[in-house]
Amino acid sequence: MNRLQAVQRLSRGFASAAPKSSTGIEHAEQFAKLGGKKPDWKLYKVQNYLNNDKYTYYQAEIELQKYRLPQPSNKKPDVLPKVKVEAAPAKPEVYKTK
């Protein structure tokens, strides 16, 4: 083995493409070893979490839709907001020193 090959093999160990953080696979394998125990529902602090179904978030979007502004369109020009302008207050008296 020449020097170049030795340096290449040594550098592969330093410059690893493997992530330094967990990928989640380790947790899944550990969970599979423990077995799929039933969750303890007393641990959930928010009881509404247990009542969610697949349409819950869609229903919330429908309920909040009436409060949202309409989306802009290229068919209708933007309208500037109407602002009521009041007359400026009179200038205060300048106190003169005697």
The secondary structure category is mainly alpha
Largest sheet: none
Ranges where pLDDT stays below 50 over 5 or more residues in a row are none
Question: Approximately what portion of the residues adopt beta-strand conformation?
Answer: under 5%
In helices, the fraction of residues equals 25-40%
Mean pLDDT: 76
Radius of gyration: 34 Å
Pfam family, one: NDUFV3
Protein name: Complex I-9kD
Written description of the protein model:
32% of the residues lie in helices and 0% in strands. With 98 residues, it is mainly α. The chain has a domain of 29 residues. The model has no long low-confidence stretch (mean pLDDT 76). This is Complex I-9kD.
What does this entry show, briefly?
By secondary structure, this protein is an all-alpha fold. It is 32% helix and 0% strand.
Any key phrases for this structure?
98 residues, single chain, 0% strand, mainly alpha, NDUFV3, Complex I-9kD
List the helices and strands and how they pair.
Layout: H1 3-14, H2 25-34, H3 56-64
